[in-house]
Structures are given as C-alpha cells and as structure tokens.
Design a protein that fits this description.
The complex is a heterodimer.
Chain A lengths: L4 H8 L5 E4 L14 E3 L10 E7 L9 H8 L7 E6 L3 H4 L4 H7 L2 E8 L7 E7 L7 H33 L4 H38 L2 H14 L7 H11 L7 H6 L30 E6 L2 H8 L2 E5 L5 H8 L3 E5 L18 H16 L4 E5 L10 H4 L4 E4 L8 E2 L6 H4 L11 E4 L9 H13 L4 E3 L27 H7 L1 E5 L14 H8 L3 E4 L3 H4 L8 E3 L5 H11 L4 H14 L2 H12 L11 E5 L7 H9 L7 E5 L10 H5 L3 E5 L6 H7 L4 E5 L11 H10 L4 E6 L3 E6 L8 E3 H6 L7 H6 L3 E7 L2
Parallel strand pairs in A: 1-2, 1-3, 3-4, 7-8, 7-9, 9-10, 10-11, 11-12, 13-14, 13-15, 15-16, 16-17, 18-19, 18-21, 19-20, 22-25
Antiparallel strand pairs in A: 4-6, 5-6, 21-24, 22-24, 23-25
Chain B lengths: L2 E5 L9 H15 L3 E5 L10 H5 L4 E4 L16 H14 L4 E5 L1 H10 L6 E4 L12 H13 E6 L2 H10 L7 E3 L22 E6 L8 H4 L2 H7 L4 E6 L12 H11 L3 E5 L3 H9 L3 E4 L13 H8 L4 E4 L2 H7 L6 E2 L2 H13 L1 H16 L3 H15 L3 H4 L10 E7 L6 H9 L3 E7 L8 H10 L2 E5 L3 H7 L7 E5 L20 E4 L2 H11 L6 E3 L6 H4 L10 E5 L8 H14 L4 E5 L7 H4 L2 H16 L7 E4 L5 H4 L5 E4 L8 H9 L2 E4 L18 H13 L3 H13 L4 H13 L16
Helix pairs in contact in B: 1-15, 3-4, 11-14, 13-14, 22-27, 26-28
Classes of the chains: A alpha/beta, B alpha/beta.
Amino acid sequence: MKTRVRDLVASADLGVASVVVTGRLDLSSYVDLLPATRDNSSDVLDVDVLLAVAAGPDASPYGDLGAAVAALSRVAPGGHALLLLGWPTADLASSPVAESLAVEGLSLVRATATTYPELPVAVLLTRVVDGAAGADDAVVLRQALALASADWLVDEVAYLRARLSTGGEDADPVVRIAELSHERASLAASLRSAELELKVAREQVAQAEASTAMRVGKALVGAAKNPRTAARLPREAVRMWRLRGGRAGLAKARISAGVGAGLPASGGEVERLAAWRGASLEPRTRVSVLGVIRPETESALRHHSYVVSAMPDDALPLIERADPDLLLVETAVSRPSSPWAHLGNPAASERERRLLGLVDAAQGIGSPVVLWRNTPVHETAALDDFARRCDLVVDSSPARSGGTLWSVGVSLADAVDLGADRDARTSVLYAGGFDPRDTARRRSLLVEALEAAGPGLTIRPRRGGAPAHGFPEPVRAAVGRDIVGNGYAVACRGAAVVIASPFVVPDSMLGLRDDDLLALASGARLVSGPNRDLAALSGLGSAVRVADEREVADAVRAAVADGPLTAAEHLAVLRTISLSHTVSARLAELVQRLGLEVVVGHERRVAIVVSPGSCLDTRALVESVLRQSVRPAEVVVSRRDLESTGALHELAASGVAVRAVSMADPTYVGLAAAADSPWITSWAPGSQEPWADTYLLDLLLGAEAGDDVDAVTLTAGGGVRAMTAFEGNATLLRRAHVVSDDRPAVDLTAWSRRGRMLVAVGAGS
Amino acid sequence: MTRALVYGDVNLNVIDGSAIWVQSMVEALSSCGVEVTLVLKAPVRTGRLVDPVAAMPGVTVVRPHEEGMVRRTKRALTRTQAIEIMRALDERRRFDLVVMRGLAAVDLAVADGSFDGRLWTYLTDMAQTVTALKPDAVTQLERISAASRFMLCQTEELRSFLESAVASACGRSVLWTPTVPSPDFELPSREPCAGRAIRLVYTGKFAPLWNTLQMTALPTRLKDLGVAAELHMVGDKVHEVTADPTYAPRMQQALESSAGVVWHGGMPRQDAMRTSAAMDVGLSWRDPSMDGSLELSTKVLEFGSLDVPVILNRTQMHEDLYGVDYPLFVQGEDDVVDVIASVAQDPELYELARLRCREVSSQYSMEVAVERMRGHLRRAFPSGAAAAPGLAGRATRLKVGVASHDLKFFSRMLDYLSALPEIEVRVDQWSGLDEHDDAQSQALLEWADVVVAEWCSPVAVWYSRRKRPGQRLIVRLHRFELESPWLTDVDISAVDQLVCVSPSYAQLTARQTGWPAEKIVVLPNWVDVEQLDRPKLEGAELHLGMIGIAPSRKRLDLGLDVLEAVRREDDRFTLFAKSKMPWDYPWVWRWPAERAHFDEVFRRIQTSPHLRGAVVFDDFGADVATWLRRIGWVLSTSDDESFHLAPAEGMASGAVPALLPWPGSDSIYHPCWIDDDVDAMAERILTTVHDGRWENERRTAQQHLAESFTLDAVCAAWTRLLVENASPDTSHGTLAPST
C-alpha cells in the first residue's frame, strides 16, 4: 500500500517539532504537517528536528547518494531523517543505499512505498546513539527497501490493471504492466538474498530477545517512548502472557495438543510461500486485518484498513509478518473457485484444520478472530463447532443463533456515479438468476415482479450465482450477460430501478443486505418483496418500495413510474447509509465490538478551522458543532481569537479535540497546518447562522463519493456530482492541499487549474 | 463358504436405528450366501427382531445369556465379555470376517488383536466435526482402521471426513448406507390434495431439536393462508429439557389441544408406517444445529419408501441426494408453511416431490444393499481361479515370494494376491536398494514357486543369479532402473517375464538392454475405480489439479502457464496441487537448479496478477479419492513419465485429464486427452467448460479408464502372469481404447 510522506511521518510519532529540508529538491510540500525551512548548511540539527532530503542514482534531478549521506551527517544521535529515494524500484535493493546509510550510523525506523512516481520509496531513519550501525542494520535496510519497492510495484500494477479494465483501448497500461513485471522479477533475487542474510543476523539476537522479561521490558520502553503505541500495550502483554502458557485455548496448549497441526509449520522453507506477499513495514495508522476473505471483501476493506488475504498454505508465515489487529474469516470463501473452496464441507476438512491452526496462531499473539457467516446456513453448517472457537461471530442474516448482525457495508465511491445523468437512467435491473433453491411461491412472486417491470427490464445473473436459464418467457428475453466482480455497482449506477435479488427472502435470511443498500446509494429506486428489516429503515420514504405479496406488480410499476431517486431522496439515502452502513462505519463497529484500541476512519476525520479574526462567537460554534450527526475530530483556533482557554471546554468534553494555536500572525493556512485531520472546513468568526445538523455529514458523504475527491461544496442544485470548476465556495477541503499550496489564503481558482476534484452535494429544490 | 461373525453392541429388544442396522447387515450377508453368526448383547425379551433374523438362511444367533455363556443372565454383555465370547467362537472355527459396530467395542477388539485384518468396522458414534475430532480420537481411529479390512461408512460425507482425518482409513473406507425395508403391506391409494385438508405426518420423539412444538402451529398458520391442513403426530416420548422445564408440559399441551393436530400416541413400528402411508406429506424439519450431521435419517428414507414426500432441511447432503430443486426443502418455519401451501395447491409440484423421494429411497433398498455387499465380498475374497484357470485344481497353494526394497507401488497388488485362496504369499523386504538379510532371501528362494522382484534393482540381480530350476521369476521395471548400472548384472536368461507399465517403456527397455523382446510384457499400473468414483463437489469443473510437483521435471511451471492462460479469460479457475513440497525431498532440494526452479515458481504464484490467490498447495496424503472430489481437471505436464498415474486416477474420479505430449503418453492415454502445447490445453479447458461439455467429457474419460486399466483387470492379469506368460504383443500399441 502506498503511503504519503506526511502520513509516514505522522504515524511514526517521532517527537519532532520542525523539519529542515535540504538537498537539490525542495521537499517542503511533501512534509506539510510541520513547519519546514530550507537549510543547506552543515550545522548539526537538534534532536527534535527532522532532516528531509532526496537522493537518486547518479545524475538524477534529486541529487546523488553521496550528497544525501553528507547531508544526513547533520542528524544528531537520536535524531531522525526522512530520505526519499528516486531509484527505479527494481534497482533499489541492489543499490548501495542500504550500506551507505548503515555506515553513516543510520538505522531504519520505517520504509514505505510512496504515492510519488518519481520518488517511489521513502525511508525514515534515526541515528544510533552509540556510533555506527551494525551489519544487521544494512541487511534490515536492504530488505525494507526491497519490500517497499515490491509494494510499490504491486500497487502500480493494480492501478494499471484497473485502468485497463475501465479504459478500453488504452494500450499503455499493457506495456507498463509488462515492464513492471520484469522489474519485479529482478527484484526477487535481491529480496531473497536480503532475507537470507537477515535470517542469519536475526538468529544471533533471537536467543537474547526470546526471554519474556526482555520482551515485556521492550514493550514498556516502546510505549513510554511512543505514546501512540501505548494502546497496543495490553495486547502485547496478553500475547506474551499467552506465549508463556496462560489460560484457556491458547496457542501453545492447542498446538501441543495437535489442534493446530493442520497448518504448515512456520519458519524454514515454508516462508517461501509468502516471501513475495507484502505484509509488513506499513505504518500503523489504520486497523490491520488478516483475512480469510474474498477479493471483493479485501477490496472493500482496503480503503479503510491494512488488509492481507491469507491462503491456506501461507497463512502462518503471513500472520507472523502482518501481526494483525484481528483475523476476519468469512464463510463465503467456501464457494467454488476460492482458495478456501468447500471450507465446511466434510470432503475438504483439511481446509478447516488449516483454519483452526490459523485461529490458534492469531489468538496466540493476542489477535481476536471474527467469523462472518455470510452464506446460507446449509452451506457451512459443519462450521458450527468452529464458530465456538472464534472470539466473535457475526452474521449477515439474523436467523442464526448466537451471532451478531454485521456485514462489510457499502463503499460510496463504488456506488455513486459523480457524472450521473439522472435522465439517462431508464433501465430496471434485476441482478440475479432464477434460483432453483427458491420455493415455488417465491419464484412466482419474482416472475410477477419482473413481468411488471416493463420493457426496461434487464436481468443480469451474478457469475457463480443462480443460473438464469429457468426464467419463463417473456422474462427470459431480458437476460443479459453475467455480472462479474465489481460489475454490480456499475450496473446499479445505470439503472433507474433495481429489483432486489433475492426478491423475497424467507425469515431466516432477512436483514439489510449490502447489495440493496448499494443499489439505493447508487441513486436507483429499490423494489423488494416482504422484508421487514428493509421496511424498517427509517427516513427513506418511497426510495424503497417493500411490496406486500398482493401488491408486487403494483409496487414495481409505481417504482418504474417514479424513475430513479430524486436528488432529495438520493441525499436522504446517502445520509442514512453514510451514518451506519458504509465500510468505514461497519469496520468501526466491528473494532468497537472487539474492544480494540485501533484507529478506524482516520480518512473521515474533519477539522474545523476557525478563520482568524475577531469576535468569535464560541456559543454559536459549540452549538453548531455539537448538533452535528457526524462530529468533527478537532477544532483549530488561534489562541488570540479565544476569549478564554475554557471557552471551548464543552467541545473537548464531548470528544472534540480543541487546538488553540499560538501564532504571531495567525493565518488560515497556518492554522490548517496545525490540524491532524485529512479534511478541514471553515468557521468564520461572526457566523450567525448555526449549521444544520447534516452539514458535516453531507460534506463527508461527498468526500466519500469518489476515490480522489479534493474538495466538497454544498449547493442549492440537486445530486452528488463532480464539478468541472471550483464554482462557489468549497466548504470541505483536503487539508494537505491547503497546506502544501503554501499560499496565505486558499485559492480555489488555482485548485481548478490543477485539476483537483470538487464534488457538489445538494438536495435540489 | 464364507463365514461372518456379527456383533452390533446394540440391544435387539429395542427397535431403533441401530437394531434395524444389525438386522439389515445380517440379512444382506445371508442373501449373499454367507454363513452368519450373530452374537446378541442383551438377553432376549422379545423376538420381534431376533426371530426373523434367526430364520434367515445360514444364520446362527448366539444368545450368550440363554446359552449359559455369562453368569449374570439379566444384564447386557459388557464389551469385554462380548470380545471374549467372540474370540471363543472364532477359536472354535475361524471366521473370515468380523462385522462390528460401536466405537468402544471395536476399540477393545482391536486392542485384543484377535480379529486384525478381518474387521469390518461400522462407526457412527465418533466425533464428526474437525473441531471435535481431537488428536487422541484420530489416533484411536488410525488404530482401528489399520486393523480393519473395511471401514463401513454410512454416507459419502462420513467417508470423506474419515479419510481426510485418518490416513489408514484411505483405501479401506467403503459405503454401507442405511437400508430401508419395503413395507409389508400394500400402499394405499391417495386422493389429490385439492378440495380437502392436506394431511401432514410426524412420527418419533417430541423434542426441541426436532421442532415438534413449532409443528403443532402449522395447521393454524396454513389456515391463515387459506390452506386446510391436519397434522398427525405419532409417538409418546416427550423429551424432558433440563434447561427448559416448561418444554414438556407445553409440548404435551400442544399435542392435546392445538387446532388441526391429531395425536395418535405411541404405536408399533408397522402401525406407524401404515399410518404414515395414508398421509400426504411427512415432516422431518429440524433445528439448523443438526444440519452439519454426516448421517442420514432413516426416517426420511422410510417416508420415501411409503411414497410420502417429506419436508426436510436443506443441507449439503440432502441436496446431493434429492437435488437442489427438490420442492420440499426448508430453512425455517416460513419455508415450511410456504412449501406445504405450494404442494397443496400444485399437484405437479407434489408429484415431483413424491417421485424424487421414491427414487432416493429406492437406492436404499435391501436389493441395493445385497448388491453392494456382493461387491465388498468380491473385493475382500477374490478368486484366483476365476482369473487364471491354471490355478484351479492345484493340490497345494501356489507359493509366491515378493522381494523388493520398496513396495509402495505394489502394496495393493500384494493385498490382492494375499487374499487369493489359491496362493500363499511371503515377502522378502530389503532394507535398502542393495541391502538385505541374505538368509531371509535364501529362505524365500528355496520356498517359492514364483518370485516377483518389484523393481529391476539389485533384488532382481540377486534372484536372477540364484533362481532354482522350475522356479518362475518375474521382474517389474519402473523408470529409474533404465539408467542404473546394475541392469547389465541381471541374468536375463533366468527371468521369465520382465514387466513394464507402458508400451513405450517396454520398447525403450528392449532397445536399451537388447533383452529378448518376447520376455518383455506390459501390465499397466492399476486404478481403483471403485474407490475413486465419487460425486464431484460443486464447481469442480473450475478446479485444476496436479498430484506431485517435485522434482522440477513435473513442470509445475507449465501448469502455471496453463492456469495463467485460462485465467486471462476466466478468473474463476483455480489450481490445487496435492504434493509434498520440494524441500520435503532431500534428494531434490539439495540441487541448486531445483531450488532455483521452485523459487521462480513461488515468485510467479505470488506476483503474477493471474496466479495470485489462484494456486493452493494441499497436503500430501493418501486421501486422493476424497481430494479428487473437488477437482475437475487433472494436469500432467511432466517432461517425462513412465506412466503417470495422476491423470488415470483423475479419470476414474470423473475428472478430465489434460496431458502435454511427454514421450510415450499416447501409448497410455487416448490422444484426445493430450494437447500439443500449453495454449492448446488452456483452450480445451476453457471451451469445454464454457460450452457446457465438461460433464460429457468427464464421462468419456471415465469410460476410457474403465476400458484400460482398472484394478480388477490388472489384478486378473497379474494372477495369470504368476502361472503363464503374457503376450509380448502387449509391448506394442497403446493401452488406450481405440475409440
């Protein structure tokens, strides 16, 4: 996963107060969270100053390695440096970078792939206190560089593949993928070599580190040094306690009893099965999930967590490398074509044995195990015993006893078409087949619904789902091609009306289905057979028509007549979904249930920046903030504008961080720089009108409606759509841009020129 | 005549599933002409079951209590007493097979050791989930399986589960399904449901997991839908629930006073069957917690035999039996109401359900059980004379010595030969390729009429140089021996028959050695179709399989090429490799070139967009038959093979073989399974699946296999080879069928 430099620095919590940028390239805009100055002198820096420098191969525009190493000599013992590297990823691990840094006495804090094509890898370094770093540090550095390079390549290929799948005839990605594959192949040798050396070096220290006392001590010291890791301390303690043979169900006891024998042993050659899987060295700014999950679930979680999918054969090496916050197992992996196909079938019981081994390993390191049952009961009935071994069992439908309702939720970025033309949506979509498992009554109701849909009906069976060949004429004529992968969201975005699939569900399968919510989020009107959970969804009005059995045809015809959701209906739907049913919300719910002290939803955090000036009406500000259905994470205000430091205590008491910034000449951009949230919105002193309680919610759902949204504005016009130019006032801004633009005030015209994306949200008239 | 001893560890005074099982087992054996001795566990209180059993032809019922074999005549036998009595009976006159049911009793018999190799073991009281099956239980089952000739499994699911957990059960596990007796009365004719109340029936105990309380609400719920219904409930055992003391009175109350419910109370089994036969729909709707059971309800099958369609939970096992579209599957109370209303109003739907039930139950008739038993008896007690007339009428048994340093490819044949009544088999197991006990080999040499040297190795050299006049020497050559230095030391003049597994290798052997062509014959490897032919799991057509990936000449990389090519078009395809890993073979892993090959393979698997997440390494093990249930295609991409059993095993399992043209492949497999290159193979896989031809192709492959090298055919050929030469013509042409 690529990471921005500012996130890398922020997540590392280095305790630095400022940045000194040196070298040929001005990195100020990359490190935009701290006050940065350019300084090419040779003065030794204070410990709380971060030195930022770039380097590349000879004759690169960033300066060569020698110059960078010379600059790094300014870092004091215990101080830190940020090095951005401009080598081609395939060459980086075999370059002299690692050795040069080690010789200079610099050791690795963290390395990561970046979002910058020309500087694909960033390394955080620290100068060891007692002189030169050891040989081990060079090996560690080299491996870290190799892994970061590999991650960059994986993401790049994924990005290009996505372009391929949507871009049609664009040939460039094909060529580039081939090039990258070649690069990655040559990287293999470097990584293997580094791993071997590292293994030898680590064995020498492993013995000393193995004692629990030393490890507990290290964890305590680590927590003291870095408060952000303190949240992990209980888990570390649990882990160590378990490894020492603590009570009940713990890995050691289980493995010695042979329960975990199904999993290939860790260590040794089996590591080769996961050697190329990127699973470590990521900054922990988000919850880390190891998943026995489908690709679509991995894709949904990827925006909100660090997620790694485990195969049956590489699970153990992966769990050690990923050190996940939780292990998520979904029963839908038991479907054919999955690596975990037939899990729960007695004819594939070795799958379950391997899973049990994985559960042992996860629980052994203190990671809770969640079983998400999202298949019909009969498909994995044999997993009931297994469920009792998990820390939490969640179900997509409420029928199963003992489970808690949960599903992964909806991605608004997938669902919402920012360029949608409401008038162009005319079709009635049924995304499913004619399920031979359905009862005759349910099939009959479905046919009735489809026949009532009229000429706009399009039936798109789901690949791997129920077949469509059983549909009677004339409905059969509406059957189109199968929906593959993420195609359901795409299909919904083109539909005026979506007929729920399955249309009628038995009691045992009631519940809010993500597919139904996604259809609504796309702006389509939804028609469903009897479903009390869907009917109970408040505030959606006629966006959902839950038909009584006697009114199926009428309900479908009425929905078709109404057409796609109006702007107001769509906004109402998005508000409901955004509050509780997005992937981020559901993930947060899961983490909360598990009692984990990890961050979820950082990407949704908003800072309210009070524009510097006079006459701040704190009462109006507090009232507006506290009434929000989505509260901001922080309020940033110039200390000069506060009547007293206690004026905003009410906010702080409600969980909203208040940052009172002391600046000689406060500017809006300067205050924005002091915030920690990725999004900012303004509060102008003198504002008289309190915000509506949906103010921030609407802005945030606009931000989530696309992958690359830079700003959101609320408009009188209807819908959620991308704007071609920054008309009017953008009220939610990506903070990094505000800061990196390095201007005294936000210049939205310039944002327009730079191709930044503005999304407008409005309920319409 | 074959003699069987049967002990069920069940009380035959109580008519329940296990007692019916004992009766059926004895009847099936008796019908096959087996002389059966049944040992009763309990003193006879009623002759309802025992008397009919005692009246069966060739059946002796041993009543230990009545016959003074135990002191306390009122108590059922302890397991120790049972084993002692069985052993005494066996010592008096040896039994050929010993059928036992009940885990604890079987375990005791295995510990006793008297019946090792003769046990036909039937278990239902073992842990049946992975989580519940603890290591000590696995050890116990390993012990039991190793001592058993057969592990009799009630369902395919139980067989699969057992084999995948217990290595020694592999190859020994066979099906012995429940048997449903035909009703001994004429089935009543039934009026169409239209225009009258539909009659539902439940027979059995009243307990929460059987949903009997909820059932009593059905007539009222159906009435609300405008469907008239009566529910007839037969039985008098109301379960006392410790956790819910109100259950029993509530159940009792519901039976007595629910609208539309007719409670018949308890009645004899035959009367209950008569009552059921007069109803329209049977109920076997249970709590979902029972859906994972690996056992089949005899009550469900009984309804089918009475021509009464039955409502039952949708489970994987039920879907496999009744079809996914069976109209009376339910998942919850709403479904039950739904399906009853549907069949009450739709005569065609009712008829579909009725016929489906009848068809399923017919597979569990006594006739089917007898036929299955005949098969098991044939396998356990083969006849050598039937295969080789030359063995008939011998005054003494033919003495066959088998010598080898490694019998892994000959073990099944050894089992077979050992079971022939006309043959006595002894083994000279060499400790290494060239290491053995000279005295032991000399003893075998002096004893045997026929010596089989498994591998053309120093074993063959030793025996060929010492063969006695009149003795017969058969040598089996595999692959690696052709390049070995000792080949020239074999005294070929002393060898009567040199057996190769394929025409291609026979010809290569003749060319390389210059040995007389008339001595070189082909007896192919064998494939146990009966073991391998099992129902495929859903989606198997998308699952490619490879068995064995090391050394590098197995060319997993080409398998990956094929997978990449098919996934470019359809990313549902997945490759499963069942194999030891290369580092598990020291002789492979010590070579840098081998390591480099596999490192590259693993790199590709983890980094190629078409392979990532699409290749799974499954455990090496004997459970190939179970594993193949999920596999639709078996790939053979090797550079070189003498036979390559994997595609043949795949064909027997109902998978489609896909071979690249390694030398000699066309002398074993039909050309239609051999592709010119990776692209052609990928194209064939894709078009076969996408055109909906996979089902036909796999049936054709299975037919080809049946015409080529089934276990029975190869065993018969080997039996003949012990007494007569095979034709050298076998070294030419192809083993594949001509069409």
